[in-house]
């Protein structure tokens, strides 16, 4: 076995964790999670019964069906943010509107808990943007650097004259950027 083949010896949980992390980084994961968490109390509380000793307190109202519809729609929008992230702006706006409608319809928005989670999820969905892959032109890649330096073993850079006092930054390759921040996505 070669020392370079470290991928074969990794634990399966590590492989799944990395896969989930990659999946989570390519979509508005937290927006979907907060929207789903906002839909659950909005749909649940109108049908819940609390028992205090021998006394039962029913929180059901005449708008129980409206609360159920709002809660299910918020849960559906959360899953839409996860699995069809192209429509994340629409899903975010719809989640915010449903959260606002839940205040008068669904027991003050699921006792404010569901309202706040759905509002936060919608706002995160609208503000999320996919990561841009930064590409380095062929003239700036490592091969061009080696050919410019002459020998492949030298790692010195030639100083090029610039108009400004500070040298312009070159874009980093995607792999280099992932290694620089510990493999974490910019959103979390």
What's the quick description here?
By secondary structure, this protein is mainly alpha-helical. 55% of the residues lie in helices and 4% in strands.
Could you explain the architecture of this structure?
The protein is mainly alpha-helical and 188 residues long. Helices cover 55% and strands 4% of the residues. It contains eight helices and two strands, in the order ααββαααααα. A two-stranded antiparallel sheet has the order 1-2. Strand 1 and strand 2 form a beta hairpin. Helix 2 runs parallel beside helix 4, helix 2 runs antiparallel to helix 6 and helix 4 runs antiparallel to helix 6. The two termini are 35 Å apart.
End-to-end Cα distance, whole Å, is: 35 Å
Strand content: under 5%
Q: Ranges with pLDDT <50 over ≥5 residues?
A: none
Number of helices: 8
Lateral strand order in the biggest sheet: 1-2
Which class of secondary structure composition applies to the elements? Answer: mainly alpha
Order of helices and strands: HHEEHHHHHH
Gross geometry: flat
What's the main sheet like? 2 strands, antiparallel
Helical amount among residues, as a percent range?
40-55%
In quaternary terms, these chains amount to single chain
> Can you give the mean pLDDT?
77
- The beta-strand count equals 2
Radius of gyration, whole Å: 25 Å
């Amino acid at each position: 076995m070669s020392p370079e083949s470290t991928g074969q010896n990794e634990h399966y949980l590590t492989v799944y964790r990395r896969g989930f992390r990659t999946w989570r980084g390519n979509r508005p994961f937290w927006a979907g999670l907060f929207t789903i968490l906002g839909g659950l109390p909005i749909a649940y509380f109108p049908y819940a019964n609390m028992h205090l000793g021998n006394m039962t307190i029913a929180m059901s109202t005449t708008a129980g069906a409206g609360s159920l519809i709002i809660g299910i729609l918020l849960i559906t929008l959360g899953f839409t943010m996860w699995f069809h992230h192209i429509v994340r702006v629409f899903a975010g706006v719809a989640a915010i509107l449903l959260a606002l409608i839940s205040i008068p319809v669904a027991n003050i928005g699921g006792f404010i808990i569901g309202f706040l989670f759905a509002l936060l999820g919608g706002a995160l969905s609208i503000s999320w943007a996919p990561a841009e892959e930064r590409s380095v032109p062929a003239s700036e890649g490592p091969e061009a650097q080696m050919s410019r330096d002459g020998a492949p073993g030298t790692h010195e850079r030639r100083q090029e004259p610039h108009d400004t006092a500070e040298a312009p930054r070159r874009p980093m390759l995607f792999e280099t950027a992932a290694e620089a921040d510990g493999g974490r996505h910019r959103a979390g």
